[in-house]
Amino acid sequence: MQIVVVGGAGTIGKAVVDALSERHDVIVAGRQSGTVQVDIQSPDSVRDMYQEVGAFGALVCAAGEAHFGPFDAMSEQDLRLAIESKLLGQIRLVLLGRSQIADGGSFTLISGYVFDDPLPEAASFAVANGGVEGFVRGAALALPRGIRINAVSPGMAAESEEQFGRFNPGRLPVPMRTIGAAFERSVDGWRTGEIIRAW
Amino acid sequence: MQIVVVGGAGTIGKAVVDALSERHDVIVAGRQSGTVQVDIQSPDSVRDMYQEVGAFGALVCAAGEAHFGPFDAMSEQDLRLAIESKLLGQIRLVLLGRSQIADGGSFTLISGYVFDDPLPEAASFAVANGGVEGFVRGAALALPRGIRINAVSPGMAAESEEQFGRFNPGRLPVPMRTIGAAFERSVDGWRTGEIIRAW
Known about the structure:
2 copies of one chain form a homodimer.
Chain A (H helix, E strand, L loop, with lengths): L1 E5 L4 H10 L4 E6 L5 E2 L5 H11 L2 E6 L14 H22 L3 E10 L12 H18 L7 E7 L6 H4 L11 H13 L6 E4 L1
């Protein structure tokens, strides 16, 4: 089965690719890296990616940006990045790919622990994560041909501890292998409409 | 205390106004009705509303639109309404009103049960609701001067049963008074960063 991993060259994306490439043919897509170029903020770019990829059995997204910074200074413009990239960008991958994915295929999007356990600096992330989780739950009820959809909500990744540990008192970093395995459960498992927490 | 109820002339808004007006001075704001006009999709309109209202101790939003219809036909354009109105429109009320609200004041936004218990036709609503819930949890950690923020997540309102009952097998309608009371608990209570479910 051919699996597209959008953002597969990023911190979490690499863990996803590691987990999936043992048993699958993985195509890494990314804005600046990977074998296929895609900018999830652009519908045209997403369409081009699907045309280039052709037949596929699963798509995983480990991409999507959002603003991280003090809430006091957070403007609507700051929030737009979360909306257009981490939220709409991911949903766009499903809306534009759902007719092309194989029967019984799956989409796996990425949410994150700050929806459940927020940080003052990560309100934008919480907005995007909540939106993604709502979309996944709704879409799972209506996708045709046995197509499944889940979101993985990773905790603080071990490889991000140096950057984000100081914002997360008492939060134990999650080994990259644990995060990769959560994506593998979504792709190779049976569940749909679920938020798979990797904390 | 002066309380602004955006969407106060709508089905749920009326229940909110009923619950709050016994003990408070309520100003109803709305796009076409109420004593103050506001379109939450427009930052300028929200700024004008706050200028007209002046000092206030609480703002409740019972407004925000989203697309309801078959998922198969749902386009990114359909989803935009949920993003710009029910999600960003509500957040905008907080971002633009937070400097003007009284010390110890509160914002109460509206989410909805389809985030937790989705309907295939309501994926857009689920996106907006999840985003609102994420925002509320994050913002509560950072709002200054004792300002609180919650979201009320109403079930299927009794007055909407005729319109939406057929999409909701086995869902008991929630009396309007129960929904109004949930908003009252947010405004006159002590909690912050909570999703108050009225199911």
